[in-house]
Amino acid sequence: MWLMDSAAPAQGSLPGIAPAFEVRMPAAWTLPLVLASPHSGRDYPAAFVAQSRLDGRALRLSEDCFIDEIFAAAAGLGAPLIAARFPRAYVDPNREPFELDPDMFAEPVPDYVNTSSPRVQAGLGTIPRVVAGGAEIYRTRLPFQEALDRVERCYQPYHAALARLVAEARERFGACLLLDCHSMPSAGAHLEGPQARRLLGPGGRLDMVLGDCYGSACAAAVTEAAERALRAQGYHVTRNTPYAGGFTTRHYGRPGTGVHALQIEINRELYMDEAALTPRPYMETLSRHMAALVAALGGIPARALAA
Q1: Strands, DSSP E only, in 154-197?
Q2: DSSP characters for 22-71?
Q3: pLDDT score at 16
Q4: From residue 57, how far is each of 42, 62, 83, 86, 132 by CA, in Å?
Q5: 202: pLDDT strictly greater than 70
Q6: What angle do CA 89, 180, 122 make, to 5 degrees?
Q7: Domains of the chain in sequence order
Q8: pLDDT in the model for residue 248
Q9: Least confident piece of the model among 131-135, 150-154, 228-232
Q10: Residue 53 exposure: Cα atoms within 13 Å on the Cβ side
């Protein structure tokens, strides 16, 4: 069952929608894993939609559609899954708390705001300026208080809950592996040149990317186990190219403390119609394969994860 994180003050909510996230807890927590789906949220506040120059479908282009469903078997296998309900276009929890484009706001932003990161420059900060594909979201500039409210209502509660899950896993098992679950557009899932031929063969098609921040976010045994499990299922897999891991992977991945973080990106073309935003029949098979991945990661010996 889906459980709300009820611990005050970190529950969080969207205007007219509660809660801002959901946690699916296993009946018995038996694996040293936590799964996160930060970009599958699809509850769009009415005020946000009214602020936007885009229609509903265009706003959804930033979603990692159905990723929370694809990994839903985790709880039955013994690991919790946290999923944001707020959409990525509204606030992106895979960023620093305040990576913001100052040109989005009606007044100067405070000095603590990171205005120069590559994500901000691309329009994809904590409060995104554009959706995937580059279309501008807003009709007018926002008051900075809007950013503060979204971070307080959504971002901070989500990360407070995720941090609690990670800490509890480490306390229970002596270590924790956080699997941060994402999807990638098929347009960005192709490699070219000698690298593609070496890694993927002549077609250059990329099914999945494992991001471990070039080995700094998790033990080598974690990435190796994930890659082995995925390749055994017939998928074309690369490491760190073109996605090495976002804020979540960098922030939580501290192998020296027994906390490991691995990001997975799945090519949307495998399981959905990207134009219609609807699932394809293969999603059922993919979900079974991701359950097998979770089981494989849960089978990593504890000594390989402990600090």
Answers
A1: 176-184
A2: EEE--SS--SSEEEEETT------HHHHHHBSS-HHHHGGGS-TTHHHHT
A3: 59
A4: 11, 10, 21, 15, 12
A5: no
A6: 40
A7: 2-89+157-305 (3.40.630.40)
A8: 98
A9: 131-135
A10: 11
